[in-house]
Amino acid sequence: MRILRLLAALVFATFFCSTASHAQGVELFGGYSFVRAPVTFNQAILCPTPSCPTTSSVQDVNLNGWEFGGALKLLGPLALAADFSRTSGSFQGASPHLQTYLVGPQLRLPGPISPFVHALAGAAHESISTSAGSLTFGPTQTSFATVLGGGIDLKVLPFISLRPIQIDYLLTHFNSNTQNQFRVSAGVVVHF
Fold this sequence. Notes:
By secondary structure, this protein is mainly β. The protein has one helix at residues 2-20, and strands spanning 26-44, 54-75, 78-88, 94-108, 113-130, 135-136, 141-157, 160-174, 177-191.
C-alpha cells in the first residue's frame, strides 16, 4: 500500500508541477471530509479450541478526516481532477480507516459562484485496528472506487475560494460486497 501512496503522490506532484508553468489554470483544494460508511467487523466466537470460527457484522460508522485535491484546466470548462482523502472513526474499541485515491474529469462553470461536477475513479483502501475485546481487526483491503458528485465554490479573493459544500456518491467493493455511501466535504480552494 505504501507503494500505491507513493506512486499516487508522485504522479499528482509531477502532473501539477509540470503543467502549472503553462498557465492553464490550476486549483488546489484542502478541507474536512465526512463519510458514513458500512464497515465489516470480524468477531471471534467463544470456543475451547485455538482456531475458533469468526462471525462478521456490518455497522455504519461515522468517519471524519481530510480531503486534498486538485484540478488542471484542459479546455474550456473541462479539467482533469485528482482527489485523495483519509477518514477514520471508532466503534466499540475498533478504529476503521478509509483512504481514497481518485482521478477523472471535472466540469466547472466559471464565475464568482462556481458550481462543478466530477466523475472520478481509482482505489479505496480500508483497514481496521483494535485495542481490546473480542473484536479482531479485519483484513487490510484495497478495492476499486468511483465517485460521482459535485459542489460549489464561492470566490472570496482573486486566488481564493471557499467550498461550503461538496457532495459525492462513493462506491467501493470490500468483502465481496458493494458499499454505497455519501461523502460530504468542505474547505478552501486556491487558484493559480
